[in-house]
Amino acid sequence: MSEKLKNSPLMRAFLWGALAAAALPPVHLLPVLLFSVPALLRLTEEAPNWKRAAFIGWFYGFGLGMAGLYWITEPILTEAQTFWWLVPFAAPLLSAAVACYTVIPVLAARLVPAGLGRILVFAGAWLASNLAQQFLFTGFPWNFWGTDWAIPGVLGNIFLQPAATIGVYGLTLLTVLLSAMPLFGKRGLVILVFGVAAWGGYGYLRLQIPEQNTALKVALIQPDFQEPPDYSRPALIANWRRLLEMSHAALLNGAGAIIWPEAASPWLLASDPVARQQLAAVTGTTPVIAGSLRMVSPTDFRNSIVVTAGPQPPLATYDKWKLVPFGEYMPKWIPIKIIPSMVGRGFTPGTGPKTISNIPGVPPFGATICYEAIFTGQIINEHDRPDWIVNVTDDAWFGNTAGPRQHFADARLRAVEEGLPLVRNANSGISAVIDPFGRVVASMPLNYQGVLVANLPNPQPVTVYARWGLRIPFMLALTFVLLGLIYGNTRRLSNK
């Protein structure tokens, strides 16, 4: 078998990519990248031509995707009677598409000879490929190596701190550069040790900045409703009663604002005065930030956040604008319908990031729903900057897999990047209050039903990344590619 693998660079690329997925949440086995990244670069160098190099990059990305995105099949299994035929294809097809982005840095690396120049080009091009992944074909910014550092506890808190300046993309760039250091032997290992030490030292010092809480106590309601939902009237009524009972328990614990997860309300709160009256009978004028579907017209449904404070019409609404392809809508270029029946023809997207203000007793907050939290640099309105971020989601569709845990890791990074506390409320977990440094102040685990009441942390001053946003990774990618090309080709000329 070993001889066969030795003579099969494509299979080796696939296996090295699959191994790299062990660095992702929730495993966080980052040392595997010290073997996987150098192996990819060696395979790239050994490739006899550009075509073979492209295949090596693709197979590496395919392995990374298959091991890191296996959980994508879970929602299909909830409607297996309809979409059974998709089960064997979902993860491979998505992984095959995402793997195309890995071809970019591999081909770029071949533009310069082996050495420092190649590493710089490879790292910059890897960053550029991640940026393309966020924006092309509806965008799917997942499996970024910067999230590897969202390790639970103190260690993760420390290593997430540079994200306040360079974002998850910058963490990815540092990860690629450091992972390639074993190629330089002892000198590379010395650079690796000093690099990690400097990174950790910076993070430790940044965590010494004082952080305090506001007076507002927020309540996270985690009802743990089953997915797919039971739409029979008895089930809807039972779910409604559970939400009301849990909201009442939150008030008894001093909550000044109550948050429900994505699409939790069984009724259309924005247009149902009876439901709002029943809710107000329990919560009074305490603001409720509720995940609820919203009907604008008989053909226009929105996945929304509806803010109520009494029986009157809602104080504010927010419509999700980054919809999940194949889950919430069908891309026009797909000729067949393969979204869940509960969605009908699909949701209508909102207009973009929004700050919700003028809610009595509640600081202005940026609203995000589920999948939107993974889009770094695109989740809040920086021209109307909020004091905190609310992220409601329903990860129950993905079961007890890596998916919900990877989603949670992304949420921690958004808090650090923006310098804002983030309150994440998930139907079945992980729900948490996260401070502006990415520290988990309080949380409820996966597959748990409960109420969490905690003080909302204060925001920090505007971070460098919040101020400059995605211009930072664009400039980093361009700078490292240019530096690598200049250095690599200068060395090539001097060796002639």
TrEMBL record:
* Location of the CN hydrolase domain: 216-458
- Chief place of localization: membrane
Where does the sequence pass through the membrane?
A: 13-41, 53-72, 84-107, 119-138, 158-181, 188-205, 468-488
**Which Pfam families does the record match to this protein?**
CN_hydrolase, LNT_N
One GO cellular component term noted in the UniProt record for this chain: plasma membrane
> What membrane topology does the annotation report for this chain?
Multi-pass membrane protein
* The protein, known as: Apolipoprotein N-acyltransferase
Q: Which organism is it from?
A: Acidocella aminolytica 101 = DSM 11237
Q: Tell me the lineage of the source organism.
A: Bacteria, Pseudomonadati, Pseudomonadota, Alphaproteobacteria, Acetobacterales
